[in-house]
Design brief:
alpha+beta; 2 helices; 4-stranded antiparallel beta sheet
């Protein structure tokens, strides 16, 4: 473990994080984590914890973390879509070369409906973009 700890720790939760201030400047040199806020990444809400208001440094670090977290989640979303394209290609290869009749019977209708739904949305969105340009 490094000797220099960060000043803040963010415990990720489903829609945000619990924010802790790290303190090692005590008599026992123990790591103390004082929860200072709970943040909601979806609506941008920051709820201070305890009786103390957040300092300007606290607010700046929370804002920086929220921006970085939103960027990370957006990157993960697009990575998932790229993986979905790969899975579609792998599914095509599986259906063509490996799938049994029973396996195809089990998934064909659900796949066709999902692909039809996706195609409809993509075509509509593409038309909207072309009409704007």
């Amino acid at each position: 473990m490094t000797a220099e700890l960060p000043e803040y720790y963010f415990r990720v939760r489903e829609n945000g994080a619990a924010v802790f201030r790290i303190d090692t400047e005590n008599r026992q040199r123990r790591i103390e984590m004082d929860q200072i806020a709970v943040i909601n990444i979806r609506n941008g809400e920051v709820k201070p914890q305890g009786q103390r208001p957040l300092t300007a440094a606290d607010q700046a670090e929370i804002a920086r973390w929220m921006d970085a977290r939103k960027a990370l989640l957006a990157q993960r979303d697009i990575d998932d879509i790229h993986r979905a394209v790969d899975y579609l290609n792998l599914t095509t290869q599986w259906a063509q070369s490996k799938a049994s009749d029973e396996q195809l019977e089990d998934v064909t209708d659900r796949l066709l409906l999902a692909m039809h739904d996706l195609r409809s949305v993509l075509v509509r969105k593409k038309a909207d973009r072309l009409n704007k340009g």
